[in-house]
TrEMBL record:
SUPFAM superfamilies: Pheromone-binding domain of LuxR-like quorum-sensing transcription factors (SSF75516). It comes from Sphingobium subterraneum. Keywords: DNA-binding, Transcription, Transcription regulation. Residues 7-98 form the Transcription factor LuxR-like autoinducer-binding domain. GO terms for molecular function: DNA binding. This is Transcription factor LuxR-like autoinducer-binding domain-containing protein. InterPro entries: TF_LuxR_autoind-bd_dom (IPR005143), TF_LuxR_autoind-bd_dom_sf (IPR036693).
Length: 114
């Protein structure tokens, strides 16, 4: 899906990851975003393959993301009918931190402030 002209993207990812995304053109094949369009519920990064069939390119994006501090991630779809779909993502740089509670935390962060 092509973003409409004038769409705003807000991110707090490290600049090197943003640069890698732009340089490699990852945004067009982002597996986290693609999976978010298939599920109204939030999901953890390791579950992406159960929501969509990952292409080789998408597998490479996930592998590369790990090298840029996104080893674990949770994502929550933020879709408004009739609007371009969006996603809120929260990542962790290490597999050492538990991610099971991060999905609940992400819901609280997103929906606490209407």
């Amino acid at each position: 899906m092509q973003a409409p002209e004038g769409i705003v993207q807000i991110t707090h990812h490290h600049e090197s990851w943003i640069g890698q995304n732009v340089e490699e053109g990852f945004f067009g094949d982002d597996p986290i975003y693609a999976a978010s369009t298939k599920s109204p519920a939030g999901f953890l990064r390791h579950a992406v393959g159960s929501l969509i069939d990952l292409s080789n390119s998408q597998k490479q994006i996930l592998e590369t993301a790990s090298k840029f501090g996104l080893a674990t991630e949770c994502a929550i779809a933020a879709h408004v009918p009739g609007e371009f779909p969006g996603t809120s993502c929260f990542g962790e740089p290490s597999y050492d931190r538990p991610c099971d509670n991060s999905l609940s935390s992400a819901y609280i962060l997103i929906y606490k402030y209407p």
